[in-house]
Amino acid sequence: MPEASGSGLADEADYSTFENKTGLADDMKFLARMPELCDVTFLVGETREPVCAVKAVLAARSRVFHRMLYQAPSPQRKKEPPPRENKIRLFLKRSSEPLLNLQNAAQQRSGFTQQLAPIQEPQPNQHHTLIIEEFEPDVFRQLIEYIHTGCVMLQPRTLLGVMNAADYYGLDELKKACSGFVQCCITVDTVCALLASAERYIQYKCTKSLVQRVLEFVDDHGNEVLNLGSFTLLPQHVVRLILAREELRADEFAKFQAALMWSKKYYDSNQTTPLKDVIGNFLEYIQFHKIPTNVLMNEVRPLNLVPHEIMMNALAYQADPTSIDPGKLSPHRVRRPGCSMSVQSSVDQRGSTTTLSSSGSDAGSDQKQHSGSN
């Protein structure tokens, strides 16, 4: 009887993929926070704050960490072969061996033999302790959290440090995420925090582009930024940089008030320096002749902080603009070719330093000699 022919359907296995990435991230975060489960401890920053991690995870996610933790440093030079012994020295050595053997036997009988512990090679699973000075503890802790869990909470206060740390350790995806977050995190409320953190990481290449974008934002929102309370937290040379920018869209009296607010904050903690001397560091960047006369007489003059000559020149210019040389009114606001405010490297008595300052000839007391750009 002929067999019935039919289309034999092969049994296909039904596969289903289940993922629980959230649970995995939570478990890995727990792992990184348990020192007894980790095998490497980083002492981070000036305070040497401990940050624990798992070496295998770091090495799998970052080639930089892999080289740091698992690859032995290459020798500086090859070991030279031991010098050949001449026949006389070899004869003396062999002749003395019986005597040395007798002495060793005597020491063993008298109980004075000292046993030397063998030198143990470092084990690959031993606990490492490394010092990290390049980044702050909060920044480095966020970096370690991202490496272990694949996620991290970006915030303006540590954004610049995390971005540079991601670039430093070869974490390109995190670096791109930080760069994208910059677009939405530069606001009036965060701009001063970003500028303050730029001082800490100014030597890294990711900082320069971000600083320029932040300064451009400051230019467009000058009056709002100058009225912020956080403006007093900026370093003095950064305040000078902002006030001296030609592109800054702010009225001159707002600039004077910002300089006064910063100077009072500084004077409260450093009363050895007179308030008049502190605010004197910023007056050269303020065009007092553009402040209305009634404001000069009612708001600025009673403070007795602005030199008499500056006040008289401003009032004289408002009465007759041709009577005063513009260079005497604002010598550091006259536009010169090749002058721009940006990030530069400078050199001082302590060595090479990179700061936010001016690259033109009107940098005031912050002007220093160039040593090249990082």
Keywords:
8% strand, mainly alpha, 374 residues, 5 strands, disordered C terminus
How would you portray this structure in words?
The protein has 374 residues and is mainly alpha-helical. Helices cover 47% and strands 8% of the residues. The protein has 16 helices and 5 strands. It has helices spanning 21-32, 55-61, 63-70, 87-110, 137-149, 156-168, 172-185, 191-198, 205-220, 222-226, 236-244, 252-269, 275-279, 293-300, 308-319, 326-329, and strands at residues 40-44, 49-53, 128-132, 341-348, 351-358. The strands form 2 sheets. The chain has a 3-stranded mixed beta sheet with strand order 2-1-3. Strands 4-5 form a two-stranded antiparallel ribbon. Helix 5 (137-149) packs across helix 6, helix 6 packs antiparallel against helix 7 and helix 6 packs antiparallel against helix 9. The longest helix is centred in the first third of the chain and has 24 residues, at 87-110. The chain is elongated, with a radius of gyration of 34 Å. The termini are far apart. Residues 74-79, 109-122, 333-355 and 358-374 have low confidence and may be disordered.
